[in-house]
Amino acid sequence: MTKAIYQALATVSVTFGIISDGMHYGWSSPVLPILLSDKSPFEFHPRQIVWIEVWLLLGVLAGVPIADVAVKRYGGRKPILAANGLSVTAWIVIALAGTIKLVYLARFLAGLAARVASVGASLYIAEISDKRSRQWLNSVINLMMLLGVVIVYILVPLLPILTSSLIGVAFLLLQMVSFPCTPEPTRDSAEAQVLEEPLREGERITFLEFIKEENSLKILLIVMCVSCWQQLAGFGVVVMNLHAILTDAHCEMNTDTVAVIFATFLVVATPLGVGLVPKLGSKALLLISSCGTGIVLLVFGVHLDNERQEEFNSWIPIVLVVLYALVFQLGLGLAPMTIAEELLPRNTQEIVNTISDSASVVVSIVMVVLYPLVSTFLGISVPWYIFSALTFLLYLFTLFRIPDTTKCAVRS
């Protein structure tokens, strides 16, 4: 077996269950119209919408220290299996839930499982991959999550909640069945002889050791800001509320169909973005992405302000969500991963990613909570103007604060 095939198959094996995590992430958008209708399996009030989203993110936040401890003690593979068990439990609880409190519990477990699984998969990929292929293989984590969003956008409007939940379980069981065939990334294995040597325990550094290094805090700030700006550009709000957003925008096409198109373009843009990084560099892509995303968000806000949108502009939301998916994912959607790879040595990426991911989740919670409040009290277009302004600020931050690693050595 060649080195590239070994790495690709091993990566698919350890990331396959992340499809289920993506289904959890996008689940609230198509399921909320069902819960607000007469078909709801339990009593549900509009004020509970935000909590379905927040409890998932709280689970992700709680999973940050748990995942960190788990992968340091057990490596990447065992935490992934444990996360699969939690995620299966979450789907079963959702399938059988008779009260909203059980759904909250399931969402929390799903968020915790998603964090542990993604960190475990990231560590495993780092151990089996070489520098040239690592960025492509790491993007598979993002790709699998977005595939899960596509799948849940398709299934939930068509099938009962019980059936779509069991399909989520099926993805996890398929991964668990294939897991015994996934090799341990040890130096003793035949495959490991052609791979880059994994980090040993003594090569990992603590946070205090990290901040003593030259320019460490500056690099941490850059990666953390870019991670947070994904949410400041409205990505979490859009994915978790897309069906309601399209309804507010008086979309001409069926909202379920447009949502699937949106998520599909996110998937397509992921390998395109990774392929463009070596040619253009992360900074150039981030400049293009932040500017384009800001324009799309601004136009969407103007569209929502147009009182006559129902008469002749109902096609505009379709175009805008497709453009948002493309321009966002080509740069901003991948920037935290690509910039961390370019600016950081391997033994510091774990610390920086943990801090930046935690900050990003906190920002995501704030945005998810504020979005309905701002929409209700200030108007449905105001959040999009805010998202647009914040994204243009990212353009300026990128222009003046992020180094161009295509023209100089990282350490300089």
TrEMBL record:
Domain of life: Eukaryota
Membrane-spanning residues: 52-71, 80-98, 104-124, 136-155, 258-277, 284-303, 315-337, 358-378, 384-402
Keyword vocabulary terms for this entry: Membrane, Transmembrane, Transmembrane helix
Annotated InterPro entries: MFS_dom, MFS_sugar_transport-like, MFS_trans_sf, MFS_Trehalose_Transporter
Database matches in Gene3D superfamilies: MFS general substrate transporter like domains
Coiled coil: none
Pfam families given in the database record: Sugar_tr (PF00083)
Domain Major facilitator superfamily (MFS) profile: 10-406
Membrane topology, record value: Multi-pass membrane protein
UniProt-annotated location(s): Membrane
Keyword Membrane recorded: yes
A GO-annotated cellular component: membrane
MF-aspect GO terms: transmembrane transporter activity
Protein name: Major facilitator superfamily (MFS) profile domain-containing protein
Lineage: Eukaryota, Metazoa, Ecdysozoa, Arthropoda, Hexapoda
